[in-house]
Amino acid sequence: MHKGTKRPSSHQAQADKSKAYPVTEPMELLPFLIKNISGSGRNAVKSILARGQVSVNGKATTAYNLQLQPGQTVTVSKEGPKEKLPFEGLSILFEDEHIIVVKKDAGLLSVASDTGKENELTAYRQLMAHVRMDHPKNRIFIVHRLDRDTSGVMMFAKSEAVQQQLQNSWQDTVQERTYVALVEGQVKKEQGTITSWLKESKTLKMYSSSHPNDGLHAVTHYKVLRSNKSFSLLEVQLETGRKNQIRVHMEDIGHPVAGDKKYGARTRTLGRLGLHARVLAFTHPVTGKLVRFETEIPKLFLRPFNVET
Length: 309
Known about the structure:
By secondary structure, this protein is α+β, with helices and mostly antiparallel strands. The protein folds into three domains: 68 residues, Structural Genomics Hypothetical 15.5 Kd Protein In mrcA-pckA Intergenic Region, Chain A (Roll); 68 residues, Alpha-Beta Plaits; 131 residues, Pseudouridine synthase, CATH 3.30.2350. It is built from eight helices and 17 strands. The strands form three sheets. Strands 7, 8, 9, 10, 11, 12, 13, 14, 15, 16 and 17 form an eleven-stranded mixed beta sheet that branches. The N and C termini lie far apart (53 Å).
C-alpha cells in the first residue's frame, strides 16, 4: 500500500455494521434487546444472541440473563464474530461433524432444568450457539447429563440420528465411564461393588429400595485411591448410569460424597460436590473406532491428603 493511501481502520469498518445502545437502567440483556431492537420479535432477538452478535462493553456474550447496569453499552453487530465465542465453565475436548465431547465445570447446568429460567446459562445453550456460528440451522442434541455440581467429561450429538443411535445402544457403546469421588470418612474396604434398586421420592430424591427388583437396577464399582480419617478418594466405575447413582450409593455405605448435603454429607470444606466424571470411552457412532477422553483429578480433591498440586 502507498504511503498516501489511508486504510479504513477495523474499528471504523466494524462501526458501519453495528449499532450501540447505552444502558440507562438496570435490566437483563434479553428484555433490553427486545425493547431496543425495533421490529424484532423475541425469537429473532434470541437468534441474534445465540449467533454471538451481541457484546456488552466490547465483550461478546450469549447469556440471555446477563444483568446490565447503567453506563454500559450494548453493541449489536449485523454479523456474528469471526472468532468462536468464549465458553463459560466449559471447554471442548473433541469435535467432528457428528459429536462434541466437552469438559464441564462444577456449577454449570448441562441443560435447563424443568423449574429453571428459560434463559439460564447451560452447556447445551453455549454449544448450540457454538455450532450455529458455522450455520444458523445447526443444532446439538443431548445424549446424557451430568448433575450441575458434578464436573467432567460429557458428550453431545450433532444430529438426531446420532443421538438416537447413542441412546439406544448406550450400554454397548460406552466402554468406560470412570468418576473420581471425594467421600467423607475412611472407606475401610479397598474395593467393592454396590448394587441396589433405585427409586425417586416425591421430593425428587433418589433412594435405594429395600425390596429386590423394586425400581431401576443400579451397579457401582469403587476402588480406594487415597484415604485418611476424614476423607477417602475413590475411583468409581458405573455399570449402570442411573440418576444420582453414585451419590445414593455412597450414602448407602455410610460415606456420602463431600459437599453433598442432599445425600447426607456433613462437610462443606470443598465448596462444591466432590464428584468428577474423569473418563469417558466409547465406540464412535459413525466411524466405529474406540475413542477415549481422560481428564485430571480436580486439585481440590487432593488437598485433604496434602498432595502437592
